[in-house]
Amino acid sequence: MKVAVVTDFDGTLMEQDVGNVLMKELEVDATAQVIEMTRQYNERIIGSLPWIEIVYPMLAGRKQEVDEILDRVHLRDGARDFIGFCKEEDVPVTVLSDGMLYYIEQILKKQQVEVDQIIGNPITYLGDNQFQFGVQNENAACKWCGCCKASVVKKLKEEGWMIIYIGDGSSDYFGSGFADWIFARSSLARYLKEEGTAFYPFQTFYDVLDVLKTDWDAFKNGKAARRLNGRHPVLCKFPV
C-alpha cells in the first residue's frame, strides 16, 4: 500500500474560506433567503447541498467581481512547501472541496500550485460570462452534501491507498470518515474531539510537515501513531 493525501481547500489549503469570502463581499449572505438557509445549515437541519443550490447561482454574471476577490486570498502558511514535500515523496495530492470548482482552479493556477487531482462542485464560468451550475454528489443514497467527500476517500481506499486527510470543516467530518490519519483544525477538530477520534491538530502546513517528516517511514509502512480503523460517520450512506 502507498500513501495519498486528500486535503480540503477552503480554510485548509487556503487561509480563508474563499466561498464565504465571496458570499460576504458580494453581499449574497445578506439576503433573507440565504440568511434562513444558513441558519438551517448551521443547525444541521439541512446539509450543504440545498444551501449550495440556492446560494451559488447568485454568482451568475459576476465573474469580474469574483476574479477581483480571488486576487486577494492566499494559501495557508506552509501549503506550498507541503505540496513540494508530497511531490518529492511521490505522494499524490487530491484537493477535495464542497466549494466552487472555478475559484479552486483559478487560485491554484495563479499560485502556480500543481496537484494530482481537483474534485469539487462543477460550478464555473464558461465563455461570454455564462454560468454553469452543478454538484459533485453522485451518491444516490445520500444528498446531504454538494460534494460527497466520503465517497471520494472511500474509493481511494478501495484502490489500495492509505489516506492522510487534512481538513477543517463539517464536510470534512464525512470526508475523513474512511481516512487512515487525520490532520484537523477548527470545527473538524472539535467534532473529532467530541467523538473521541484520534487526530493530529494543526494550524499551518508546517505543523503537518513537522509530524510527517519526523515519522515518515512509519507513515509509509502504515504504523504511524493515531491511525484509524473502521471509523464511519453516522450520517454517511452508500448504495448497497
From TrEMBL:
Keywords: Hydrolase, Magnesium, Metal-binding. SUPFAM superfamilies: HAD-like. It comes from the Bacteria. This is MtnX-like HAD-IB family phosphatase. It is an enzyme of class 3 (hydrolase). Its EC number is 3.1.3.-. Its cofactor is Mg(2+). InterPro entries: HAD-like_sf (IPR036412), HAD_hydro_PyrdxlP_Pase-like (IPR006384), HAD_sf (IPR023214), Pase_PHOSPHO-typ (IPR016965). GO terms for molecular function: metal ion binding; phosphatase activity.
